[in-house]
Design brief:
Layout: H1 10-25, H2 50-65, E1 70-74, E2 78-82, E3 90-97, H3 99-104, E4 110-116, E5 124-131, E6 137-141, E7 146-148, E8 151-152, E9 165-168, H4 176-188, E10 191-193, H5 198-206, E11 212-221, H6 222-234, E12 238-240, E13 256-262, H7 265-274
Parallel strand pairs: 1-3, 9-10, 9-11
Antiparallel strand pairs: 1-2, 3-4, 4-5, 5-6, 6-7, 7-8, 11-13, 12-13
Helix pairs in contact: 1-2, 5-6
The structure holds D-MYO-inositol-1-phosphate and calcium ion (CA).
The site of calcium ion (CA) has 6 residues, from strand 3.
């Protein structure tokens, strides 16, 4: 089994993974922008999980073909060790982020994969988020910048909330608990959005399409954001806790987090000032 040297071509492997996911998931779909009422039942008995499991299988297949020994940290199957040196390489994935969008034919879903030597967010050094509908591939290697389809991307310079387009995730949350923390921010922000696949939304901030993304529900798993955070930081963005502290966390499918992600430091400060964590 391969030992991962720092010059290993992760981007090449990511592209193979993306292609294998598309090859295995697309035949299950009627058309990518149609609703999919009859996708069957996944291993967990969950009606909407078949595509997630196929995408996970397609990812693992390529890693094994490449002779990589790794510990898989997956939103779907949990933690599984492969090969003889699994503690030297952690592969954190959300095989499909935005499953509801995919099932409903909404054109916004992706696969997310992050690579680290240790099971911590701060240790992630290579990442890909693949937009499975539009075909765009976002990648980053720590210290080398962030790219969309091989072209360098950078974050927005907009620093004022009254010009901002900001992602805000309030999905399936008892808003009572956090509404009062967000009301000033919502009032001050020109445009609020939520597209429904947080890994891809972080790439939109990385690319400067949006100016920030905030999720303080305490529901989002590290598997959803491990790749997106590296891509955003490499594109020049800032990520922190809602108190402005450095964000780190164990990479574990059960581990959730709260975060504020912005295109630039000034925007970040504006947002933090208006969120008042208890
Ligand atoms: C979901 C998406 C969504 C967020 C949910 C996540 P999934 O991921 O990222 O935007 O609001 O909390 O669970 O379930 O489609 O992988
Ligand atoms: Ca998922």
């Amino acid at each position: 089994m391969k030992c991962m040297k720092s010059d290993f071509n992760w981007v090449g492997v990511f592209l193979q993974i993306k292609n294998n996911i598309l090859t295995n998931v697309c035949p299950l779909l009627k058309a990518q922008n149609e609703s999919q009422p009859d996708l069957g039942t996944g291993a967990g008995g969950d009606k909407i999980k078949l595509v997630d499991l196929e995408a996970e299988k397609a990812t693992v297949e390529i890693l094994i073909q490449q002779g990589i020994s790794f510990t898989l940290v997956s939103e779907e199957s949990g933690i599984i060790e492969y090969g003889d040196k699994p503690r030297e390489c952690y592969i954190t994935i959300d095989p499909i982020d935005g499953t509801t969008n995919l099932i409903r034919g909404l054109p916004f879903y992706c696969s997310s994969i992050a690579v680290s030597h240790k099971p911590f967010l701060s240790d992630v050094y290579a990442a890909m988020v693949a937009d499975l509908f539009h075909g765009n591939t976002y990648t980053a290697i720590r210290g080398e910048g962030a790219f969309r389809d091989g072209i360098r991307i950078s974050t927005s310079t907009i620093a004022s909330l009254n010009e901002a387009v900001m992602g805000l995730d309030l999905n399936t949350y008892n808003t009572k608990g956090i509404a009062h923390l967000l009301s000033e921010l919502i009032k001050a922000t020109k445009h609020i959005r939520h597209f429904g696949a947080n890994a891809l939304e972080l790439c939109y901030v990385a690319e400067g399409l949006t100016d920030a993304f905030v999720d303080i529900r305490g529901k989002l798993r590290t598997t959803d954001v491990a790749a997106g955070f590296l891509i955003l930081k490499e594109a020049g963005g800032t990520v922190s806790t809602a108190e402005g502290k450095t964000l780190d966390s164990r990479l574990d499918p059960k581990q959730t987090l709260i975060f504020v992600a912005s295109g630039n430091k000034k925007m970040h400060e504006c947002i933090l000032k208006l969120i008042k964590p208890e």
